[in-house]
Design goal:
This protein has 442 residues and is α/β, with parallel strands linked by helices. The chain is built from 16 helices and 16 strands. It starts with a helix and ends with a helix.
C-alpha cells in the first residue's frame, strides 16, 4: 500500500512536476496569469515573468498553455545555454521544422516565412522561453529582433520569457535597453505569505481527493512557514515527506510529531539558521550540467528537494529525445547528499559502460541519459576538488556515453547502499517504434 491509498487519496498531492490541475490561484498567481494571457490579445504581446526558484513559474506556464485557444501555435524552449544559431534552430524545431545544417540567414528567413504564413492564415504564434536567466546577451538580442517582426498593424510573434531573479538584473543592463523598451508587461512571483501557505496545502490535498478532510494538524503550519519561507516547491517537499512519515507511523493525519520527523529526515532542523529564514534550503547544494556530446544545453542548480527528469514539458529537467522516457529519473537532494534514481525507464541510466538503478552522486560523476550527459558538481564540501573539468574533455564525454543504448532495462535486487549499479547485458540495437510503445507504459 502506498501513502496515497493510506490517506484515501486519488493521487499524490505534493508532486514536484508542474501539473496545471494543482495550481493554487493566489491573488498574485491570478494576476501573473492575466499578464501571460495578455500576450495573446494584445497586438504587441511581450511579457517577462520572474520568480524565485520553486515559486511556481513553470506550473503557471503549463496552466496557461492548457487554456490556449486552438488558433495559437506555440513553442516552448527550456534548454537555454545556446548560441544564437542554436536558439533559432531550437525554435524552428518546436514549430515542426528540420533546420539543421543551415546558416543563420537561412534560419531567419525560414522563421520569417513561417510567421507570415501563420499570420495570413489568421493564426497567432507564441514563443515561450523558460529558464531564461541562462540566456546570453547575444540570444536576448536575437529575441529582441524576433519581436521586431511585424505587419503594419501588429507583431507576428508574441513572446513570453520566464526565469529566476537574475533575469531581472540581466535585462536591466545598459546594453539591453532596446530589449527592455519592447517589453509590454513584467511580473515577479513572490513566495506565498500568511494564509496563502495553509490554503496552498489544503488546495493540493483537496485536488488529490482529500475533500474537506484536514490531514495536517494546525500545529504543523508554523513549521511549514518557518522552514519553507512560503516557496511552493519547498512546501511540496516538506509536506510530501511529512505524509510519508505519517504513513510509516500508521496514523491517518500529519501531526507536529511527523512534521518534526520530516524536518529531521530532510536535514533541515540541523541546518536551521538563527534568523529562522530558509537560506539553507534555498542554498545551492550542487549543480547538473546537461550536454549532448560536446554541446552544452543548460545548467540546473540543485537545492534541497526532488527534481524529475524526462522527455515531456511537465518535468523539472526536460530532455527532448526519443531515447528518454516521459518520466525517466528523479534526483533527490538533501543537505548532505544527492541521489539519482531510475524511474523504470526504457533505456535507463549509465555511468560509463555500466547501467545502474540508483546512485549517490559524487563530484565529477558523468551520468548518461539516452544520448545526453548529466555532469554533476557538488558544492557542499569546499575542500573537495571537482573532477568535472577532466570529465568535460571531448574524449571523456564521448566515452561516457554507452556504445549502444539497450532497448530493455536489466534488473538486480542485490544492491549496495553506496552505489546501486548492475552489469549490462550485451547491448542491442534500439528500435524507435518499439521504444515508443514501451515508453507509453513508463
Amino acid at each position: 500500500m502506498s501513502y496515497v491509498e493510506h490517506f484515501g487519496l486519488e493521487e499524490q498531492p505534493f508532486r514536484l512536476t508542474p501539473d496545471p490541475d494543482f495550481v493554487y490561484w493566489s491573488e498574485q498567481h491570478q494576476q501573473a496569469k492575466s499578464y501571460l494571457e495578455s500576450t495573446i490579445w494584445l497586438a504587441d504581446g511581450f511579457v517577462i515573468l520572474t520568480g524565485e526558484i520553486g515559486a511556481g513559474k513553470t506550473t503557471l506556464l503549463q496552466s496557461f498553455l492548457a487554456d490556449l485557444e486552438d488558433d495559437v501555435d506555440y513553442a516552448v524552449i527550456s534548454q537555454t545555454q545556446l548560441s544564437p544559431e542554436e536558439f533559432l534552430q531550437a525554435v524552428l524545431v518546436e514549430y515542426g521544422f528540420k533546420p539543421f545544417g543551415k546558416g543563420k540567414a537561412e534560419l531567419i528567413d525560414m522563421l520569417n516565412t513561417f510567421l507570415l504564413e501563420r499570420y495570413s492564415a489568421g493564426r497567432r504564434v507564441l514563443l515561450i522561453v523558460d529558464e531564461a536567466q541562462n540566456l546570453s546577451r547575444r540570444v536576448l538580442e536575437e529575441i529582441r529582433l524576433l519581436n521586431g517582426l511585424e505587419t503594419t498593424k501588429e507583431k507576428v510573434l508574441r513572446i513570453i520569457i520566464a526565469g529566476q531573479p537574475e533575469l531581472r538584473d540581466k535585462i536591466n543592463r545598459d546594453d539591453l535597453k532596446q530589449l527592455t523598451q519592447r517589453v509590454r508587461l513584467r511580473y515577479h512571483l513572490e513566495p506565498l505569505v500568511g494564509d496563502d501557505q495553509r490554503a496552498y496545502v489544503e488546495h493540493r490535498l483537496k485536488v488529490a481527493g482529500a475533500g474537506d478532510r484536514q490531514l495536517f494538524d494546525d500545529a504543523c503550519y508554523p513549521a511549514i512557514a518557518e522552514f519553507t519561507g512560503g516557496v511552493p516547491r519547498l512546501i511540496n517537499v516538506l509536506c510530501d515527506t511529512a505524509m510519508l512519515c505519517a504513513f510509516a507511523d500508521e496514523v491517518d493525519y500529519v501531526s507536529e510529531e511527523q512534521m518534526d520527523a520530516a524536518l529531521e529526515e530532510l536535514g533541515w532542523l540541523a541546518n536551521k539558521p538563527a534568523t529562522g529564514n530558509t537560506s539553507n534550503q534555498l542554498a545551492i547544494q550542487a549543480q547538473l550540467e546537461l550536454r549532448e556530446k560536446d554541446t552544452r544545453l543548460g545548467e540546473f542548480e540543485l537545492t534541497q528537494g526532488r527534481l524529475i527528469i524526462g522527455r515531456t514539458a511537465d518535468n523539472d529537467i526536460r530532455i527532448d529525445s526519443p531515447f528518454v522516457s516521459r518520466h525517466h529519473a528523479q534526483i533527490v537532494t538533501t543537505s548532505e547528499t544527492t541521489i539519482i534514481e531510475d524511474l523504470n525507464s526504457t533505456n535507463g541510466l549509465f555511468l560509463g559502460a555500466r547501467r545502474f538503478t540508483k546512485r549517490r552522486l559524487r563530484d565529477g560523476d558523468v551520468v548518461a541519459v539516452g544520448n545526453h550527459l548529466l555532469i554533476y558538481k557538488d558544492f557542499r564540501d569546499p575542500a573537495a576538488e571537482s573532477l568535472a573539468e577532466d570529465a568535460l574533455g571531448e574524449s571523456s564525454i564521448v566515452e561516457a556515453l554507452p556504445a549502444e543504448i539497450p532497448a530493455e532495462a536489466a534488473a538486480d535486487d542485490a544492491v549496495d547502499d553506496e552505489e546501486f549499479i548492475i552489469d549490462l547485458p550485451e547491448p542491442g540495437d534500439v528500435e524507435l517504434d518499439d521504444l515508443e510503445v514501451k515508453d507509453s507504459q513508463s
